[in-house]
Amino acid sequence: MLGCTGCLPSAASEPVRFTPSERAMILSHGPWPQQQGRDPSNRFSGNGAAIRFGRALFSDARLSAGGDMSCATCHRPDRAMTDGLPRARGEALLDRNTPPIANLADRRWYGWTGQADTLWGQSIRPLVNPMEMAAGPELLARRVIFSPDLARSYRRIVGRPPSAESPESILVNIGKMLSAWQETLVTPATPFDRFRDALARGEDVPADQFSASARRGLKFFVGEGRCSLCHFGPGFSNDEFHHIGLLHFVDGDRVDPGRHGGLDRYLRSPYTRAGPHSDEPPEAPPGHPEISSPVTRTTGAASGCRRCAMSPPPRRTCTTVRWPIWPRWWGTTTKSTWNVSMPPVKRCCGPWGLMRPGSGTWWTSCGP
Ligand code: HEC
Ligand code: HEC
Question: Per-residue b/e over 10-49, b at no fewer than 16 CB within 10 Å?
Fold first, then answer.
């Protein structure tokens, strides 16, 4: 190129080597998929009939007030279980975008602000939220009771006809069946996972299966970039909340309460692990000490980067944001030692191959 081959940085062609601590960090991001336990708070977890019904319910518009919107309207199967929009639109415009539905079992918090600690509790929210599907318990109960197919399946799985149940129980059971299905959606192993497993065995994989640039990205991710501090473990998330430098104003002047709003909702919700609808509340109900991350102005759970190629563009895009990296403990006031500017969304995951899906997988969109 321009007769200046020697000008190209030679580092690009040198094999990437990992230090022992980088190797240990890489290994900690797997194996994948993880063994998945039953959700003790959901009696339908792992129940085949409930999973099938939950799957059907997910795209059933009768669960919305207007009869024109289902979970799948926003969590679109043809769009990696999101809608690709910067902000989701239900009965009204929501403040945040639609996260993909995958790898949701065994999580500690759900939603961008952690407003739920159960997947079924999180699944109930859009059913009742006036800005989303807006059905509410009474209307939903009527729909289930008076739709013969729904009533039949419900009775088969629950053991009682819906007409013998309170609207609140119907709402909770529908949430739990939706959850039973969603739990089963797990992203398959990626080229990164094959590389990581080979590393664990003391082997290497050929460069065409995990390129030199992917290795450089990985080295940065677990090393200098410190990404693993928040995106750690097999799910690439610490499942906690961080202020990542996004503006906390919505529509100009309205403050987004972030994690504080989520905690507030969580503490008032009856649909929690320790709440009255849980099938196996933990022995010591989680109180305030259980709740971690007392950070101010948090914007979202450290997203499980396993799903990142599936995520839609802003409000949490990597394109425009400079991500402050706190070196030690998020929530202290000592701000960043350095900023890392992120690659555009489309290539967010590409360089290090985390989510570069194999062919024929069901998430194909990677944001515009
Ligand atoms: C109007 C669009 C819309 C509809 C309809 C919708 N969702 Fe969502 N969903 C969202 C948005 C937006 C969020 C993020 C909410 C937040 O935390 O601020 C979300 C979050 C979730 C999450 C949390 C995922 C995570 O990573 O923590 C689950 C689970 C979920 N939705 C399931 C459902 C189910 C089940 C239904 C149907 C009963 C449904 N959604 C209907 C837009 C929608
Ligand atoms: C301080 C904790 C923290 C650090 C360090 C961090 N992230 Fe994140 N990351 C987050 C949070 C929180 C989110 C989700 C935020 C949101 O979208 O509102 C996120 C989201 C992402 C996403 C989008 C994932 C998705 O599902 O859409 C990518 C990609 C990403 N981070 C990559 C990186 C990379 C690369 C680094 C290192 C250079 C890094 N992150 C360092 C906290 C962190």
Answer: eeeeeebebeeebeebbeebbebeeeeebbebbbbbebee
